[in-house]
UniProtKB/TrEMBL annotation, chain B:
SUPFAM superfamilies: Second domain of Mu2 adaptin subunit (ap50) of ap2 adaptor, SNARE-like. The keyword Lipoprotein does not apply. Residues 176-417 form the MHD domain. The keyword Glycoprotein does not apply. Gene3D superfamilies: 3.30.450.60, Mu homology domain, subdomain B (2.60.40.1170). One of its GO terms (cellular component) is clathrin adaptor complex. This is AP-3 complex subunit mu-1. One of its GO terms (biological process) is vesicle-mediated transport. It is found in: Cytoplasmic vesicle membrane; Golgi apparatus. Belongs to the adaptor complexes medium subunit family. Pfam families: Adap_comp_sub, Clat_adaptor_s. It comes from Sinocyclocheilus rhinocerous. Keywords: Cytoplasmic vesicle, Golgi apparatus, Membrane, Protein transport, Transport.
Length: 1109, 418
């Protein structure tokens, strides 16, 4: 087919197109055709994409087979701007392959890429940079440099990643650019996205691995990002951090000898409060130098640990070596399990892992002992794996397990794989030398092997026995005799040489046999291998010295034979020995010492593992594997004597891991009261937040009250226009409040339509928690929020709120515990004023003013107390919730006159903070009483819980009653099903929460918010673009919409383009962070960070809907 | 990092080369060929070979050597793992990873390699991203392509690379939403001559085939998660949830993938489903031997043992075997010296037995060693460790998916010493 298809191709007819589908790879289509490239050129020049594509496919196939297609360069490069993506891609492949050879022509293509670099599509920018940087043409270095610099500050993290990739390319093309490149690396190292992290560290490792100072500032960030970086990047980062840690932290095993100590230290080290530890430890270990692990050191260990569960063997190995090199002794053990797991992988992986395990077992044997059996050998393992496993088993052998290991070795000796058998015998020898107790057993076993049929086995045994005997020759003359007999049968030179050496060395122990052996050897001397010959000469010399009477002639004979040997080594040896031992008249001074020379006591050989001392190479590295330094290997530095300044790693934003505990505490304090904010019942939050706000400035203060207004407005549902006024009011408020304080009792009548209602609002608050209000009133935030509430308040009042509301308000009063004496009285006053409606607004405003001073001092503790009393009230306290969205649980008709509605009151449910409070209102529309209203048989998803309300005994006709129950939805939107029972009937009911109700607001400062958001990157972040609805004209509407959708609180924010909200899920307390960034033209970006991705996704959906309406 | 890649078949033909940096002459492979020759068996080629200027790191898979050329220090496992990933991608794309398929799809192979590494550093190895970049060939598509001249390269620019969940494509849509999970456990064991267990452990994997629309968030929980001692996960699994709640929570990749693998090493937990009585002996004289193997069920939890195969690697001197099997068929290959006895289903009432004589090369000494038996078996609907999936929940999507869990136990490296 080849020729004919080539021919038809040349015609380029469209009719022959299908034939282009013919596989271009199956060998030698055009190989013999001289004009082969002409037709390709023609195809490339045609204006049909399909022809070009076909041509490019063939060319690539040729490249793949290693054929030279460089003469097509001009024709191909022309197509670099081709519209067809696949043609384009293949042209890139070609270009990158041949640009180096055709530098001038390659320049033709550069402009295309330069254009690509400016493309609005990030993927095109990235691919342009990628190809441009892959073209190894020196002339374009400046262009590349420029492109990289530009890309390094690109908006898209993907382009920045590509820039990081391009750095080593440029560096290898022109090392002189190093300084500039380091600048780019420094910049990219500061990048916060996981996408970039791996690539830039790779570039760092290739360009400037010694610039450890660049890492300081990014160390903590890298540690924290690590788990979300793609697997290949993880390997590179972990390896780099291992080296870094070795230069920056102290050796955690300084007091290596004191084992119990190190575990203790590890325990201490995990604590955050080092200073205290330092003291206690110093006291406890007065003599020793106390060691305290740097928290950054701990951070690294902690953050890498989960990666031991990666599916990628390279990642697991990287973590393992990190632990081996950096962790305190007591903690290294955890890597063993993971490494053993890797042994199930492909044989190449096994090979590398076993090499590393072998090194580790020498230093830390205990670690792998529990996994001894995992190293047992199967007959189907490849030989190289078998030998490595044997090595590990030998290293693991100790007094307790040696018997099992030896039994195992015994089965190995029967294997068919002779190399492996030989290795097994050596392993037995090593066990015998290392463990004195079993030496005799091993020796006996080896001697038995001497009668093995397989010569190789015998030979290997001889060699090993020789080594063993050298340790204690006296006791084993019978073994030597036995071996002397073997010399007749064994042909393996090494074994024969070993036997001869043994006999020579210990000829005193076998005085009768030795000369006879020499006699036999003399006979066969000429046919022996060289090493055997040398040993014969040795034997002869030794015998001559000890027993010259019997062996003098034999020795002469052997030496004579050796004198004419073909090998000069042997001739030299013979000459040398003759001079030394045979006394002649002119023999030198040396001959006197001949005996000492030959019969000196030789030290027993030490049988060592070939893996000894390999651990000075970083484990897992190529150099370690080869036991030689590979190019580009970075030495693993030794631990420093004293730790360098740890503050270099401090970044403006304090370390997350450190501050969490403190923050948690703070959050707890703040949280509870905060939820109740929207009900306007708990001042403590307000004041608490105003307190913390005061630090962050006025702007944040104003933001926080906006959140208040937001949640308030959510109740009213539709009071958009009112928000506009608020802005104007902002300034006014302060003044007003001021007036309030000073004048207190007489607000200007007309100026204060809003004021009035603000007063009512205040009163409401005051009713529940006077103190808060007082404290709050001192800060503007409170006043503002009350102001902002007024609008809604007005409207709501105009609406049909009325009696139920008031009844609700009453209830708390009656139930209030008498303890609250002082507050109580005040409350009662306010309660009254409330009943009197708007007229008495001076009272509440005056109230807050007075106690300010003494309150502020111990504000926090007071607040705590307050929030407590709050929660006591909570279950029965029902907020003026008429504005909260009501859901129907039971319709009047289906309920046969009993109507049930429920709403999410957004109050904390005090009996169980993990439950969502659901407020249920029963209305009896019948003419008779309904009795015994209660809940029965909840059918819940696993984990969900219900706390039922107390049974309502009687509900009179026409009456309605409201109760609160708690449901723990387990952070899911699954419905809670239950039966609603009256004395006569049962109704099935189910409550399904919108996702926004599964959370409660959390107060965060801007910084806290950013920190937390930083922790919830990667998979935990969901981002969507949206177009704001027509009504979402300003920030306030957005705030209102968002808070209406979800029970979140606004987080202060410096930028007016962004609105931030924070909350946490009720049942598990996971943070939920929402950011709405508005852009030009009504577009916006919505970002939700939440560990619970489901919640996150659903929330995104809901908020999107709310905002785009 | 990785400089070049050469693919070499078992016969020593170099059939594909790809360079990510400057071109390295293929003559560098001579060092590999040398090592290959020395190793005799392809399994025994050292994975890392040192040459004067380069290092060759190779893997052997599906009768192909993937030889990569390295110039500087790099963790060898990094390269090995990557090469295996390449092989898996080929398998994923072409159904199998063989010389023929690679040659047939050389252009796609080349495009894939181009995307997977940039300057020798892995760029996109997630099959989901690659499939968006380069569509895998199907018969239909290749026909359409030949006629219309359209290509396998994705028309749309891939966005997967940019996402936080790189393993999942956006906008997945199925008419039938289904999620299947296969719990596959392999028993690795060594039994000694008397039948006692020298070593046993279970290697389990959970393979998933998830075809769900949209962005589902799945939670898989077990009845007895405590069983799982050592686990490794697909990157999609949230470690934290596992650590705290022992449930597997993940947004699945689209299609087939391995969700997790685990390892149960506590020996008392490992039930050995069968026992083997064997007697293989060679006579001192007469160049012959005897063989007698019986297999019976031991702890099968009431399930049937299927696909039972016994493989014996005979010593070199065994010329032929004259045996009779009460069940199944046997076959002795005198070239490879492998005796294969395919039993099939194990019938507890009538235990299968293989008996007969072996004839040895005349004059050769009686072989020292006894061959070990390798057992292969399969038990359907049973996870031998007792692991049970409790439930699978889906969040984030409204539809109701079809769910299924299947259990299979197989013999892994199951060896009986004689």
């Amino acid at each position: 087919m080849s020729a004919s298809s080539a021919f038809s191709d040349e015609k380029g007819g469209s009719a022959s197109e299908p034939e282009y589908g013919h596989d271009p790879a199956s060998g030698g289509i055009f190989s013999s055709d001289y004009k082969r490239h002409d037709d390709l050129k023609e195809m490339l020049d045609s204006n049909k994409d399909s022809l070009k594509l076909e041509a490019m496919k063939r060319i690539v196939a040729m490249i793949a087979r290693g054929k030279n297609t460089s003469d097509l360069f001009p024709a191909v490069v022309k197509n670099v701007a081709c519209k067809n993506i696949e043609v384009k891609k293949l042209v890139y492949v070609y270009l990158v392959r041949y640009a180096e050879e055709q530098q001038d022509l390659a320049l033709l293509s550069i402009s295309t890429f330069q254009r690509g670099l400016k493309d609005p599509n990030q993927l095109i920018r990235a691919s342009a940079l990628r190809v441009l940087s892959s073209i190894r043409v020196t002339i374009i270095v400046p262009i590349m440099m420029l492109a990289i610099k530009e890309a390094a500050s690109d908006m898209s993290p993907y382009v920045r990643k590509t820039a990081a990739h391009a750095i080593p390319k440029l560096h290898s093309l022109d090392p002189e650019q190093k300084d500039q490149l380091i600048e780019v690396i420094e910049k990219l190292l500061a990048d916060k996205t996981t996408l970039v992290a791996g690539s830039v560290v790779m570039a760092f490792e290739e360009v400037c691995p010694d610039r450890i100072d660049l890492i300081h500032k990014n160390y903590r960030k890298l540690c924290n990002l690590l788990i979300d970086v793609e697997e290949w990047g993880q390997v590179v980062i972990i390896n780099m951090l291992t080296r870094y840690a070795r230069t920056q932290f102290l050796n955690p095993n300084v007091n290596e000898s004191l084992l119990e100590d190190s575990s203790e230290k590890a325990f201490y080290a995990s604590d955050d409060e080092e200073d205290e530890d330092k003291k206690t430890e110093a006291a406890a270990l007065a003599k020793r130098k106390p060691y305290v692990m740097d928290p950054d050191h701990r951070l690294l260990l902690r953050n890498t640990k989960p990666l031991l569960q990666s599916r990628n063997a390279a990642v697991v190995m990287a973590v393992a070596q990190l632990y081996f090199h950096l962790a305190p002794k007591a903690e290294v053990g955890i890597i063993a399990k993971a490494l053993v797991r890797l042994m199930r992988s492909h044989s190449e992986v096994q090979y590398v892992v076993l090499q590393n395990v072998a090194t580790m077992t020498i230093k830390r044997r205990g670690m792998f002992e529990p996994y001894l059996k995992s190293f047992y050998i199967r007959s189907t393992d490849p030989t190289q794996i078998k030998i490595l496993k044997l090595e590990v088993l030998t290293n693991l052998a100790n007094e307790t397990n040696i018997s099992t290991i030896l039994r195992e070795f015994q089965t190995y000796i029967k294997s068919m794989d002779k190399d492996f058998v030989a290795a097994s015998i050596q392993a037995i020898g090593r066990c015998a030398t290392n463990i004195g107790e079993v030496r005799d057993t091993c020796l006996n076993g080896l001697v038995q092997l001497l009668s093995n049929r397989d010569e190789l086995v015998v030979a290997e045994s001889v060699v090993v026995i020789k080594k063993l005997l050298q340790m204690q020759p006296e006791q084993h003359s019978d073994i030597i005799k036995h071996m002397a007999k073997l010399i007749d049968n064994i042909q393996v030179p090494m074994a024969r040489a070993s036997i001869l050496w043994l006999i020579g060395e210990y000829c005193e122990h076998v005085p009768k046999i030795a000369p006879d052996v020499l006699r036999k050897m003399a006979k066969t001397f000429t046919n022996e291998e060289d090493i055997v010959k040398l040993q014969i000469i040795n034997l002869a010399a030794k015998l001559y010295l000890t027993n010259s009477k019997q062996t003098k002639l034999l020795t002469q004979y052997v030496l004579n034979l050796a004198k004419y040997d073909q090998n000069y080594d042997i001739r030299d040896r013979a000459r040398f020995i003759r001079q030394l031992i045979v006394p002649t008249d002119k023999s030198g001074a040396l001959s006197k010492y001949a005996k000492k020379l030959f019969l000196a006591l030789k030290p027993a050989p030490v049988l060592e593992s070939p893996f000894k001392d390999r651990d000075h190479f970083q484990l897992g590295s190529l150099s370690h594997l080869l036991n030689a330094k590979a190019g580009g290997y970075q030495e693993l530095p030794d631990w420093p004597e004293s730790a360098p300044d740890p503050s270099v790693r401090n970044v403006e934003i304090p370390d997350w891991s450190k501050c969490t505990s403190r923050k948690d505490r703070k959050e707890k304090k703040v949280d509870k009261p905060f939820y109740s904010d929207s009900e306007g019942e708990s001042g403590p939050t307000e004041s608490a937040d105003s307190e913390s706000d005061s630090g962050s400035g006025s702007e944040s203060a104003s933001a926080s009250d906006e959140s208040g207004s937001g949640s308030e407005s959510e109740e009213s549902g539709e009071e958009t226009e009112s928000e506009d006024e608020e802005e104007d009011e902002e300034k006014e408020k302060k003044r007003k409040k001021h007036l309030d304080k000073t004048k207190a009792k007489k607000p200007a009548e007309e100026s204060a339509e809003s004021e009035q209602s603000s007063g009512t609002e205040d009163r409401k608050r005051g009713r529940k928690a006077v103190k808060n209000q007082k404290s709050a009133s001192e800060s503007e935030s409170e006043s503002e929020s009350s102001e902002s509430e007024d609008e809604s308040e007005e409207e709501s009042e105009e609406e049909s709120e009325s009696d139920t509301d008031i009844r609700k308000k009453k209830t708390p009063v009656s139930k209030q515990p008498p303890k609250q004496s002082k507050k109580e009285s005040k409350k009662e006053k306010q309660e009254m004023s409330l009943l009197d409606l708007d007229d008495f607004e001076p009272a509440p405003t005056s109230a807050p003013v007075t106690p300010v001073n003494f309150l502020s001092s111990s504000l926090v503790s007071d607040l705590e107390g307050l929030s407590l009393t709050d929660t006591i009230l909570a279950p029965t306290t029902i907020a003026p919730s008429g504005l909260i969205k009501l859901y129907e649980l039971l319709h009047r008709i289906t309920g046969e006159g009993l109507a049930v509605e429920y709403c999410f009151s957004r109050q904390p449910f005090s009996p169980d903070p993990n439950m969502v409070a659901v407020q249920i209102q029963f209305t009896n529309n019948t003419n008779s009483e309904t009795k015994n209203l209660h809940i029965k048989e909840p059918r819940l998803q696993s984990g969900m819980r219900i706390r039922e309300f107390a049974e309502i005994e009687v509900l009179a006709a026409g009456e309605s009653v409201t109760v609160v129950m708690g449901i723990d939805f387990c952070d899911s939107t699954q419905a809670a099903n239950f039966q609603l029972c009256t004395h006569t009937r049962k109704f099935f009911a189910s409550i399904q929460p919108p996702v926004g109700e599964l959370m409660t607001p959390v107060f965060l400062t801007e910084n806290d918010f950013k920190k937390e958001q930083g922790k919830l990157m990667g998979m935990n972040e969901i981002s969507e673009k949206l177009t704001l609805g027509e009504k979402c004209v300003n920030e306030h509407v957005i705030v209102e919409r968002v808070t209406a959708t979800a029970n979140l609180s606004r987080v202060p924010c410096g930028s007016d383009k962004e609105c931030r909200f924070a909350g946490k899920t009720v049942s598990s307390g996971c943070l939920v962070l929402v950011t709405v960034a508005t852009k030009e033209g009504g577009r916006a970006q919505l970002t939700v960070n939440c560990e619970k991705m489901v919640i996150g996704t659903m929330l995104v959906k809901d908020i999107m809907q709310a905002l785009s309406q | 990092m990785i400089h070049s890649l050469f693919l070499i078949n078992n016969a020593g033909d170099l059939f594909l080369e790809k360079h990510w940096k400057s071109v390295i002459s293929r003559s560098v492979c001579d060092y590999f060929f040398e090592a290959r020759e020395k190793a005799v068996e392809p399994d025994n080629v050292p994975p890392v070979i040192r040459t004067p200027h380069h290092y060759l790191i190779n893997i052997y898979r599906e009768k192909i050597f993937f030889v990569s050329v390295i110039q500087t220090e790099v963790p060898p496992l990094f390269v090995i793992e990557f090469l295996h990933r390449v092989a898996e991608t080929f398998q994923d794309y072409f159904g199998e990873c063989s010389e023929t398929t690679i040659k047939d799809n050389v252009v796609i192979v080349y495009e894939l390699l181009e995307e997977m590494l940039d300057n020798g550093f892995p760029l996109a190895t997630e099959s989901n991203i690659l499939k968006e970049l380069i569509r895998p060939p199907t018969i239909l598509r290749s026909m359409v392509n030949t006629i219309t001249g359209s290509s396998n390269v994705g028309e749309t620019l891939p966005t997967g690379q940019l996402s936080n969940i790189p393993w999942r494509r956006a906008g997945v849509k199925y008419t039938n939403n289904e999620a299947y999970f296969d719990v596959v456990e392999e028993i690795d064991a060594i039994l000694d001559k008397s039948g006692t267990t020298v070593f046993a452990e279970i290697q389990g994997v959970i393979d998933a085939c998830v075809k769900l629309s949209g962005m589902p968030d799945l939670t898989l929980s077990f009845m007895n998660p405590r069983l799982l001692d050592d686990v490794s996960f697909h990157p999609c699994v949230r470690y934290k949830r596992w650590e705290s709640e022992r449930v597997i929570s993940f947004i699945p990749p689209d299609g087939n993938f391995q969700l997790m693998s685990y390892h149960i090493s506590a020996q008392n937990l490992v039930a050995i489903p069968i026992y083997v009585k064997q007697n293989i002996s060679f006579f001192e004289t007469g160049s012959s031997g005897r063989l007698d193997i019986t297999v019976g069920p031991k702890q099968t939890m009431g399930k049937t043992v299927e696909c039972l195969v016994v493989t014996v690697h005979m010593p070199k001197v065994v010329l032929s075997a004259n045996l009779s099997a009460t069940q199944g068929t046997y076959n002795y290959d005198p070239v490879t010296k492998i005796l294969l006895w395919d039993i099939g289903k194990l019938n507890p009432q009538k235990l299968p037995n293989l008996k007969g004589s072996l004839s040895l090369q005349s004059g050769a000494p009686k072989p020292e060693e006894n061959p070990s038996l390798n057992i292969d078996l399969k038990i359907q609907q049973l996870a031998i460790s007792g692991l049970k999936v409790n439930r699978l929940d889906m969040y984030g999507e409204k539809y109701k998916p079809f769910k299924g869990v299947k259990y299979v136990t197989k013999a892994g490296k199951f060896q009986v010493r004689t």
